[in-house]
Amino acid sequence: MNSPAVASTAATSSAVTPSAVTPSLNTILIYARDMQKTASFYQACFGFAGTGEVVEGLIELNSPSGASILIHQAAKSVKLGQAAVKLMFDVQDIEAFKARSLEKGIAFGSTHEANGYQFANAKDPDGNSVSISSRRYRKPA
To answer: Which InterPro entries does this one have (predicted)?
Structure first.
C-alpha cells in the first residue's frame, strides 16, 4: 500500500507534461564588481539590449536570439574570473567581428583554427572568459 505522500507524488507527476519538467538554458547570471561596466561590455560587444537599470538587484540584458544575461553585484568575497565556465558566442565571421569589436575598444586574442572552425578569446571587465566561435557554422565532414 502506498503512503499518502507517494500517492500524491504519483498523481502530480502524471499530470505534469514533459515540457514542464524539461530544462532549457536561456539565462546566464554573471557576478560583477561594476555592474554598469559589465552591462556595457555585453551590449557593445555582443549586441545585448537592456536599459542598464538595476531592478531587484539585477541588470537584465536580452539578445535577439532569446538568451538573457542577468548581472548581479558581486560580494567582496567573490573571486571573479575564477570559474571553469566560458561564455561562447556564435559568430560566422571571426575576423570581421574582431575588427568591429576593436573599434569599440574590445580586443580579442589570436584567432585559432580547430576541426573546421575558428575561435578567439577575450575577458569581460570582471575577468570572465568569453569566446567567439564559428563552430556552429562549420560545414559537416
So the answer is: Glyas_Bleomycin-R_OHBP_Dase, Glyas_Fos-R_dOase_dom, VOC_core
**Contact criterion met (CB below 8 Å) for 128 and 80:** yes
Q: Are β-strands 129-133 and 27-32 bridged in parallel, bridged antiparallel, or unpaired? A: unpaired
- Residues 7-64 pLDDT 10s: 444 444 456 666 667 767 789 989 999 999 999 999 999 999 999 999 999 999 999 8
Chain-centre distance for alpha carbon 27:
7
User: Cβ of 79: how many Cβ atoms within 10 Å?
Assistant: 9
For the chain, report the end-to-end CA distance as a whole number of angstroms: 56
d(CA 62, CA 43): 9
Give the dihedral of Cα atoms 126, 128, 129, 131; nearest 10 deg: -70
Give me the CATH code for the 26-75+83-137 domain, please: 3.10.180.10
Residue 110: what residue type?
Answer: S
Neighbours of 46 (CB within 10 A): 20
